[in-house]
């Protein structure tokens, strides 16, 4: 649910890199759920690996919006230089007052490119909070995926095919030939 919510806000802000990453995330989450329901540990391992990648992506997003290192939230890195738009939260954050642009200076698609004024929460912090929530959910999902894979693999190892790999089978076959089997019975 949180990934779908994030996808909506990325679409509203024309953030193409996060849109692609979130789409892949949604597909892998569905694959992981399918693996859990169908008892397919490989699909769950794919989800667990993706959860680690997803945490890394979200750490990058937090660093990007908080201007950590050489990253700058005003760059066009997340839009692939396809549009001048930034985060949807930049213009529509909680408590933001909208300044109307002059009639001749508005962009052709109708979306204002002016940041909101007097916002209760700056857009970089809103994006960082979204990413922190994604990290929390991904870490819980990773732990759960590791647990489910362990349970599924234990179940596979403990299955006994009548006298199979179990050291103390319920059905025991004597492997040494008995002399009684080869003696003929005389009446």
Automatic annotation (TrEMBL):
Subcellular compartments: Cell membrane
GO biological process: regulation of sodium ion transport
GO cellular component: plasma membrane
One Pfam family matching this protein: NKAIN
Key words of the record: Cell membrane, Membrane, Transmembrane, Transmembrane helix
Coiled coil: none
Topology of the protein relative to the lipid bilayer: Multi-pass membrane protein
Transmembrane segments: 16-37, 44-68, 132-152
Family (UniProt): Belongs to the NKAIN family.
Protein known as: Sodium/potassium-transporting ATPase subunit beta-1-interacting protein
């Amino acid at each position: 649910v949180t990934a779908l919510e994030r996808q909506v806000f990325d679409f509203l802000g024309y953030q193409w890199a996060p849109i692609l990453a979130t789409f892949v995330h949604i597909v892998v989450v569905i694959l992981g759920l399918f693996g859990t329901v169908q008892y397919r540990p490989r699909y769950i391992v794919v989800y667990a690996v993706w959860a680690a990648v997803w945490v890394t992506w979200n750490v990058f997003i937090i660093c990007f919006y908080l201007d950590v290192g050489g990253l700058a939230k005003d760059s066009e890195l997340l839009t692939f230089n396809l549009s001048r738009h930034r985060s949807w939260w930049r213009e529509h954050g909680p408590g933001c007052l909208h300044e109307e642009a002059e009639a001749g200076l508005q962009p052709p698609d109708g979306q204002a490119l002016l940041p909101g004024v007097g916002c209760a929460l700056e857009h970089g912090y809103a994006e960082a909070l979204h990413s922190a929530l994604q990290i929390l959910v991904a870490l819980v999902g990773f732990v759960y995926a590791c647990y489910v894979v362990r349970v599924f693999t234990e179940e596979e190892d403990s299955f006994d095919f009548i006298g199979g790999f179990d050291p103390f089978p319920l059905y025991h076959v004597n492997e040494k030939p008995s002399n009684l089997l080869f003696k003929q019975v005389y009446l």
